[in-house]
Every structure is written in C-alpha cells, then in structure tokens.
Amino acid sequence: MSNFTNSSIYELPSRPKLATTALLSSTDTLLAVVGAGIVVHLIYKKHESYEPLVACALLLGVPFGLSALYLPHAGTFAWAALTVVPLFWGSVVTSIVLYRLAPWHPLAGYPGPLLCRVSKLYPAFVSLGGKQHIFYTQLHAKYGDVVRVGPNELSICDPNAVQSTLGNTGLGKGTFWDGRVPFTQPVKPLIAIRDKKEHTRRRRPWTRAFSTDALKGYEEIVIKRSSQLVNLVLAQKSVVNLSDFTSFFGYDIMSDLAFGGGSEMMKAQKDSQGLWHMIEAGQKSATFMSHVPWLGSLLFRLPIGISQLKAFRTYATRRAALRRTGGSSHKDIFHHLMDEDGVATERPTIAEIVSDGGLAIIAGSDTTSSALAHTFYFLMSHPTAYRRLQAEVDALGDSVLNPSKQAHMSYLNAVINESMRLLPPVLTGSNRKDSGGRMLGSHFLPAGNAAFVPIYTLHHDPRNFSPAPDAFLPERWLSEDERQKLEPKIFSNSLDYAHNTNMFIPFSMGPANCAGKNLAYQEMRMVVCLMMRRAELKFAEGYNSEQWIEDVQDFFITLKGPLPVVATPRKGQSAADIGDFI
Ligand code: HEM
C-alpha cells in the first residue's frame, strides 16, 4: 500500500521536478530580481549611457535572463517573464525615485518641486507649453536663488554665481545639446561640442569670422538686406505681418553670409524652399529632448525623429558645395570658416564647414529676427520712446547707414538692449556641467550634476534692474544725467536704481557665448535705424498688443506670433534721399 502511494506520487509529472531543479526558492529569486533592478540603477547612475544596445542589455536582457531563473516556479517562460519583468522594472524605477528623494542625494539640500526632483520628464512636459521661461521665474520666486529643477540639475539666478557657472573659468557645456543633435551626426556643429579643448579648436574660425575686419566686410550685405526689408514693408498697401518679414530678413541675410546666398524669402514674401519651417518644425520636440537626452538619442535613431534635421543637413551640404565651387563676391562667414585666406595652422574639414555653415543659419536667423520684432513691438507700444529714437536717428543726417556711428547712438543701443532684456531671443539658455564638483558662488555643485542660468529670470530680477524691472524703460541704460533729464519722476530716487549690466546676458557669457554677437548688433542697428528714418509704424487697428507677449514661446529659440502693423513712409525720407542700395 505504502509502495503504491509512494510510486504514484513520485510519478506525478511536474511538481517534484520543479522542487529539485529550482536554484533558488521563489522568494529568493524575486529578491534577486529586486537586487538586480537596484544594481542596474547604480550602473546607469555611474555610466550615464544613452546607447540603445546598453539599454537593451540592461533593461531587457537582465530581466528576461532572470525570468529563466524563475521558470521553475512559474511553469512557462511567459508566466515567469510576466512576474519578473514588471518587478525588475518596478525595482529600477523605485530605486531611482527613492534615491532622488533621499536625504543623501547630493542635491538634497537644494529646494525644488517634488516632481522636478523625481524626474526631468516633468520640466520636459512643461517645456512643451512654450512657457518654460515663466515656469523657471515662478520657481525662483517661490524657492529662491538656487532651485533643483531636475533630479541632477540646478537653476541658478544668484548674481554672484553666474560668472562661475558660465564665465571664463565656468562649467563646460552640459547634456542639453546631446538631446538636440543626433548622436549619429558625424561632425557636430560648434554649439553642440561638449569637450572644452575641441570646442576651443572649432571656435577659432568663428572668432576670425567675427573680427572687426570681417564685420566690415559684411557691411554691404547688411545695408542691402536692411534696405530691402524697409522698402518691402513700406511697399505693402495694407496691414503687414512684421513678425514674418523680420524672419524673412533673418533667413535671407544669414544665407547670404553663410553660403553666399540661396534664400530670397523677402522677394517671394514666403518661405518657398521651406527652410524656415524646416528649422522651426523640430524646435518643440528638440526642446523636450534637451531635457531628456537619453530619450532624444533613442528617437534620433528612428527615421521619423530626424527627417527635418536630415532635410536641413542636405540643404546645408548642397549650399556649401555650391558656395565652394561658385565662390563669392565678398568675404562671407563661409570664407572664414573655410579659411580661404589660408591663415589657420590647421584647416577645417569639409564636414566641419558644412555643419557650422548650417549652424550660422540656425543660430543667426531666428534669434536676430526675434530681437528685431520685439524691438519694433516695444517701440510701437511706447510712443515716447519711438519719438526719442526717431529724433536720435534723424540727428545722424547722412550718416544713417554708417555702422560706426550707429554703434555710438546711446538711445538706439538702449532700445535694443532693453528689448533683449525684457524678451531675450534665447529665453532660457542651455545647461552646463563638469566632471568634478564645483563652487558656483557660495553654492556647491556636486560632481555629476548640471546647472544653468535662466536668462529671462535674471533679466527680470529687481536686484539687477530697477526700478520697474518688468517695464520697457530704455532710459535706464543712459547716463545718470540723461536719465534724470528724460524721466525725472521714475529715476528721482537714485537708491532705487539698479543696473547690473553683468547680469544682462542675452548672448550668454564666457567661452561658449554667442559667436555672432557683434554681427547681430550690426544687423539690428542697421534695420532699426533705417526703419525709424523712413517709416512710421503703428499696430494695425484692432490688434491687442498684449497678444504679442502671450504668443511668445520658448523653444530655446523664440517662436513668435503675428505682428500686424501699418507702415507709412515719412515725408522726405525716401530710399533715394538716403541712398538706395537695392
Ligand atoms: C540677437 C541675436 C542673437 C542672440 C540673442 C543670440 C544668442 C545666443 C546665445 C544665448 C547663445 C548660447 C547658446 C547656449 O548657451 O547654448 C548663442 C550661441 C551661438 N550663436 Fe548666437 N545669438 C544671436 C545671433 C547670432 C548670429 C547673428 C550668429 C551668426 C552666425 C550667431 C551664432 C552663434 C553661434 C555660432 C553660437 C555657438 C557658440 C559656441 O557654442 O561657442 N548668433 N547665441
């Protein structure tokens, strides 16, 4: 009897076998899965790899491998995987979240919203709304000068920490551009180069391209394109969308300067080649990816993720080839990037030139056109400033087209700077990061963490600009005598006056600041001078001017709404009166 019972039990097909083949008990196996999840988190924390192969190995290979270990307790591999994989992923996520919220996290001492401390996905989603400049300003109002805006990132608006973050001895470029420029791109544009040595090497041709001599060589193009813009605006019989026209101008002039031509949007009064839209279309997703570069690097490997970028690269390559073979009648930016004078010890490669030629168009067109559109917007909203500027421009007489004279016009420069202070064309900027820990002012940035300075927030800080930091007051840029003379009521109390020009950083600062700053000023001064001289601008009837600010969107570059304007010629100020260059 007992024999029979025993043999029938031992002959049952599976259970006893399971008990003998399982290496670990069910509980021990599941604990091992949790442990593996924690280890994978630690590996990622140490190595920060964006490689899909590494992700596959760690996030798929490990849990599916562990599923085999659990097989004896589950019966089928599918059941084992269904138990192990979610547990593994849950452990990775829980380990990450707990660590990020733990009091021993290196940034635990810095205040910030819970969701920001948990994941960068939160600010990434906020950025999709186009108002991240307002988001960061509100965070600083609530939490103070240093805010933890990501698990491993600080936003800093302490004036004493800006220099050590961005300045000459500041941090190197951070992960921001990793999410915007595909890993697969063989040669990155200057702006995306994180290695400090390599960045310095690649920056040299740019420094030559914007030397005083080089800028002199661009004057003719700047005058020609500025005149074309003003003539075009004045030629419109009805309401003109000045926002579009400044963008047409931006693309046309940068194409001239970067590749010896190729864009005639002003003439066509539309973006016939799709160049502008090719660049702007990707900005929203690029901004999202700049927060979560690991996701960007995955998406960039999918054809859909880079179709616009590819189209632009093809365009830039074609233009560069045309420019190389066709030459140019003037020394353009390409001339210097290409080292056609043969002054460099090391000649740039063709791939570098194509990449940087494309960058010139991306970096130089939208930024300058936004600055111009903002300037005209503020002038039309402030008639007194409009009149004061017009008077200064008129006083120039025949020198209105002279860039050296324009550079010394105090009110003109005050208007341009005040516009860029209130609405910097790059509203937030990019992050910075070094391998070691660093003191940023009196704040310690532990190794492995990033920091950035939110430009818009800094510009609106009353410690830097007072009185009325949110108001358009070009007079704040003038000497004390002039301020008192023009706006005695506003500037009567000198104790209220703060004007920290070191904290005016629309072009960023330090070794990775804007390479084209002087060209941008040259263009802006020329366009504004000519427009003031020749045209009377006013908002189109029925336009609610507050809409302009509403429409401003921060996708690293600014996306702007329409600016409906009526332009009428000023008497005695025709193109012929001041020299027609078209
Ligand atoms: C009002 C107009 C402009 C503004 C406000 C502006 C602003 C900026 C800012 C804030 C940066 C730093 C970006 C970062 O932190 O990642 C930058 C970089 C750069 N800008 Fe501009 N920019 C303007 C016009 C131009 C023009 C006309 C050019 C000419 C090609 C240009 C070329 C560049 C380049 C090449 C860089 C990269 C510098 C580097 O990484 O070393 N920009 N610009």
TrEMBL record:
Tagged with keyword Flavoprotein: no
Keywords, in A-Z order: Heme, Iron, Membrane, Metal-binding, Monooxygenase, Oxidoreductase, Transmembrane, Transmembrane helix
A UniProt-annotated Pfam family: p450
Pathway in which the depicted protein is active: Secondary metabolite biosynthesis
GO molecular function, one term: oxidoreductase activity, acting on paired donors, with incorporation or reduction of molecular oxygen
Gene3D superfamilies named among the record's database cross-references: Cytochrome P450
InterPro entries referenced in this protein's UniProt entry, alphabetically: Cyt_P450, Cyt_P450_E_grp-I, Cyt_P450_sf, Cytochrome_P450_monoxygenase
Family: Belongs to the cytochrome P450 family.
Protein's recorded name: High nitrogen upregulated cytochrome P450 monooxygenase 2
Originating species: Psilocybe cyanescens
Lineage: Eukaryota, Fungi, Dikarya, Basidiomycota, Agaricomycotina
